[in-house]
Design a protein that fits this description.
Layout (H helix, E strand, L loop, with lengths): L5 E4 L1 E4 L6 H4 L19 H4 L22 E4 L11 H9 L3 E4 L4 H9 L3 E4 L2 H11 L7 E4 L4 E3 L5 E3 L4 H8 L4 H6 L2 H14 L6
Parallel strand pairs: 2-3, 3-4, 4-5
Antiparallel strand pairs: 1-6, 6-7, 7-8
Enzyme class: lyase
EC number: 4.2.1.33
Catalytic activity: (2R,3S)-3-isopropylmalate = (2S)-2-isopropylmalate
């Protein structure tokens, strides 16, 4: 998992509440267990018309938001089913941070496990950031995980809270497997003791 320390990028405004995981990645795209290739299907029902052509009114089909790395939304982002494909699709598109007043719990947890930083900020602050984002490529937003601040284009710093363990894991690019591998020496030592004590189990 790629570490997340400090990100400065284009933010896409998505002024919608209750964006569920089926909106993020519709069920028809869940046949794969690969984490790559889902970006093209992110928000498919909103991005594409029935004939498969792009909907020019949807924000991610507009410049400069095709290159967005931050997504700003309203309440209860990621509600609905527990599909991990939702953060996979966001990440494959290029989104590394989602800012919203709050998130559905399972989506919130899955985001951290896949290298996406979900930032909770009050609704009025999210609305301010959306206005900033509407300025396009000239209004890049910085998300600094080390300092735990979001920096607006005008230089204003907005602090956010995050669980210390999750912050540590993101800063160091550690998913569940990475955490386990950090204990490799202890695991090897335990296995060696087990082999010595019960060699017949390892024959």
């Amino acid at each position: 998992m790629d570490a997340f320390t400090k990100l400065t990028g284009i933010a896409a405004p998505l002024p919608m509440a209750n964006v569920d995981t089926d909106k993020i990645i519709p069920a028809r795209f869940l046949k794969t267990i690969a984490r790559t290739g889902l970006g093209k299907s992110l928000f498919a029902n909103l991005r594409y018309r029935e004939d498969g052509t792009e909907n020019p009114d949807f924000v991610l089909n507009q410049e400069p938001y095709r290159s967005a790395e931050v997504l700003i939304a309203h309440e209860n982002f990621g509600c609905g089913s527990s599909r991990e494909h939702a953060p996979w699709a966001l990440l494959d598109f290029g989104i590394r941070c989602v800012i919203a007043p709050d998130f559905a719990d399972i989506f919130h947890n899955n985001s951290f496990k896949n290298g996406i930083l979900p930032v909770r900020l009050p609704r009025e602050v999210c609305d301010q950031l959306m206005e900033d984002a509407k300025l396009g490529a000239n209004a890049r937003i910085t998300v600094d995980l080390e300092r735990q601040v979001v920096v607006r284009p005008n230089g204003e710093e907005i602090p956010f809270e995050i669980d210390p363990l999750r912050r540590h894991l993101l800063l160091n690019g550690l998913d569940d497997i990475g955490q386990t591998m950090q204990k490799g020496a202890s695991i090897d030592g335990f296995e060696a003791k087990q082999r010595a004590a019960q060699p017949w189990l390892y024959a």
